[in-house]
Amino acid sequence: MRPEDAPYIGDAIMQGLLQIMQRCAGKECGGVMEDALMAVSTLIEAGLCNHEEAQVCSAAIGVLVDLCRALEVNLMPHLDEFITLLIQIVQSDKVEKLVKPAVLSCFGDVALAIGPNFSRYYDYATKILNMAIATAKTDEKKNKA
Question: How far apart are CA 72 and CA 70, in angstroms?
Fold first, then answer.
């Protein structure tokens, strides 16, 4: 296998890892779930850090949303890093504006997935939503001028 093979096999590998995690969710699977989650989280983190490639970043957000739905509270050990990266996306000037609403939606999916545990991220989410509102108001004023 060579690095240039990655685009051809990446989707199949990701689907396989997600299936492993879905089958292990709520069951005692030893280290299988943790190993699969570590592999997927590394790929998600790389995608979330790729601010210049809107499609890659959006795809990583989509996979994170899928993980939230599949794993719910079991995703908690990895959420601190993901939340930090989502905040960086919203604050970055390099990210296309079309990606940022997906981040806001992702915060909602995280909240639904982890329930009351989301209180840990509430202040961050509120700050980001307020930034989005301020940006929308600024853009609205520019469009009227």
Answer: 6
Alpha helices by DSSP H, listed for the chain, are: 6-24, 32-49, 54-71, 76-91, 100-114, 122-144
Which secondary-structure segment (H or E) carries 1?
Answer: none
Mention every residue, 6+ apart, whose C-beta is less than 8 A from residue 48.
57, 60, 61, 64, 82, 85, 86, 88, 89
pLDDT tens profile 103-133:
999 999 999 999 999 999 999 999 988 988 8
Count of beta carbons in the 10 Å neighbourhood of residue 50: 17
CA distance 4 to 14: 17
Q: How far is CA 111 from the centre of its chain?
A: 12
Domain spanning 3-144: which CATH class is it, in words?
mainly alpha
- Lookup result for tokens 């051809």: 8
Domain limits of the chain? Answer: 3-144
String of DSSP letters for 114-138: HGGGGGGGHHHHHHHHHHHHHHHHH
| pTM of the complete model beyond 0.90 | no
